[in-house]
Description:
The protein is an alpha+beta fold. About 30% of the residues lie in helices and about 25% in strands.
Amino acid sequence: MTQNPFWPGHSSNGSCIRFPVAGETAVLWQCAVSSIQGLGIANYEVCMSKRREFGEQIISHKGVLENNYESLRILNVERNGNVIYTYKDNKGNVFFGLYDCQTRQNEHLYTFEKDLHVVSCSVNSDRTLLAASLVHSTKEGRKNELQPGSKCLTLLVEIHPVNNVKVLKAVDSYIWVQFLYPHVESHPLPENHLLLVSEEKYIEKFHIQVIQEDGSRVVIKDSGHLPRERVAEDFVWAQWDMSEQRLYYIDLKKSRSILKCLQFSADEKFNLMFEAPLDITLSDSGFKLVNFGCDDLQDQENLSKHLTLCVFTNHTGSLCVCYSPKFDSWEKFTYSVFYFHKGHGKTFTAALGSVDSHVTKGLTFLNLDYYLAVYLPGHFFHLLNIQHPDLICHSLFLTGNSEVVDMLPHSPLQSLSGSLVLDWCSGKLYRALLNQSYLLQFLWNTQLDCEKMAVLHCVLSCGGDRRFLEAKIIQWISENISACHSFDLIQEFIIASSYWSMCPETSNMDKLLPYSSVLTWNTEIPGITLVTEEIALPFMKVHSFKGYWEKLNSNLEYVKYSKPHLHYNNSMVRREWHSLISEEKTGRRRSMVYVKNILDNATKVISNLEARNLEPRLTPLFQEADNHQRLLMGLMVSELKDHLLRHLQGVEKKKIEQMALDYVSKLLDLVCQIMETSWRKHSLHPCVPHFSGRASAAEFKVFHIMTRILEATKSLFLPLPPGFHTLHTILGVHCLPLHNLLHYIDSGVLLLTETAVTRLMKDLDNTEKNEKLKFSIIVRLPPLIGQKICRLWDHPMSSNIISRNHVKRLLQNYKKKPPSSVIHKSSFSVEFLPLNYFVEILTDIESSNQALYAFEGHDNVDAKFVEEAALKHTMMLLGL
């Protein structure tokens, strides 16, 4: 069966609740649901086994429930992951059960010996109290349809052991119930808190104290008078966040929608955290609740006609409001996402394709940590990047024609807190996760550049074994290096992987480090359009923040005051590096202490890099000093450290220094990994290649990869491992014809290093072809390196170059003096007055400025040497 990246199969960290179907015994579900392996979903297996009494599990095929499979229904998922469900026997008696996600055992909670329909249910964290809201079922019409005008009973039941039942409400409107779950669950709590949400648009909180009697028996204290307080009223929409114990609700003020959030704390007190205006219309939408238990499967054909609204947050301080208005077109579907933590909202319009492809199922929004998913069964799947939503290419949009969308469940889904998803038709409860292995597979198969970009970032955000993951991506890059036209694959991988290796560990790093090499995207994404608008930021109602609220407030402050963006770039490093290289060429150097500190940074980076690499390195890198690259490394560490110190609050200096070292080390490590992969793939020898012989096909391919690495790092001004340019040049000399080689050198693709040219002079003999190559290389060298290299080549050309350089240096500051009447004879028996006169001038300069003009390291270069070289060169030109 094909794997699905968003609904993978069985997982060890959860289970899927499955209701038995006709003709089978209740058994644990081994998930075999196809999925687009990105929303991987774990199993919450509720073995809906028949029970005769508390604690006894019936294994036989015969039983009370065998003819009542359709009555099985999930009611609620509590904060600790426990699942509450209900079913009926043939007499209509209602049974309540609980599936413990820790022990994976079922527990009978209570039985109502009446034919009732359960609207809502919740159990407290100690499993001593059960709250349920029920109405009478009708015997006519559709099963479980609520009887018009029937009274809704809200009951509070003592279940440890089963004892008294207290009526909390008896009204004509529906009531939903939800126990609050404290953060500390190490001991039984003397007081429980219960939320009651009324269809009449108010929310109350009951304070319920319990005491122990007769040993372990738990009863409600003073059950005749339970304190209550009004939490909210006059709202039109509310959502409960089970995981974080937050209540979001919208009230209308002068026809304007205001989103509010209440945070319930460990002592069960609550605070209004923020108010945020929403540019949506809810006045005629009626009453809507989200995540107050699991909805019943009713009116499926009308789901698409109602608006959808939900709030998602994550640990990084994001706050997203997802909204889809009532559906009014068969040709397109519109939905909006308000990224409050970024200060803007986006309205998307997705084409539905054929006019005949009617929308019969509702839209589902799913929270996937760094992403949220928008799914319309059979039509499209949109994976939205909520950390960096600015560019549409960082989000993945798949149409109904995609194989991936076809593999997703086509039945209506309900999104619950904590990334839980309920498939109404099958009765299965999933936990949605991004499935990394399928995303990697999808990366290999996709053809669109926008999808490659989106999936690359999505894969890296999943975490896991980063070394293994990077190796897989590098393998893909090496096979598809020329298949991407909208952006540079190597460049994007290096920046993205470095970002994800650092940002999850420290708050606010996502605002300070570059996320992508792509700053703009103008290419159209097939099947979708969008409009971006600025939105009003939430107004925080408290002044002391902790945890999530501190991060959200930091994000909002950043949006208010930090424009332009604070993402680090190497522009300062580029200017400073060029300045240092220029000083080196002119012989001027600023403080040696400054340069030493920079080179010390580079030494730390290389040590850090070597500590990461546990296996012996095949690629012949790090075999030379390469001071230019070391300066670049050290400068980048210094600039990045200063950047982080300016903008990271509350982080000690030593940790920031280590973060800067780790980041630069990671950049270099990724380059080394690409090189290692290429070297191993083509089975090259770990030694530096020789200049003699013909280049192999493998060397051609490695040279091509190195050229692409150089292109990727050059525009971003990123450092390369010491020895990279030497190895690249040697392969270039080996692989390219002379005219191509010189073109690569002149255009800056190949950088002539002293190490590479020295090897070239020593390895190649003085055949006519090699002489032409050597001379072409020498004349392109910087003067200081050229002088050193010429001394290694015993050839008239080399002597000529040395002589020219010597004369040039002597005559730079020469001031003409009166001519001498005596002309010294040259060492040759040739009377050539212009040459004799010129040599005399050089001799006079040398004698008066011997210390200043001595040829460094080459004592026998003097006027005599110049005279001999000139005569030999003249004779060679005359053919004598």
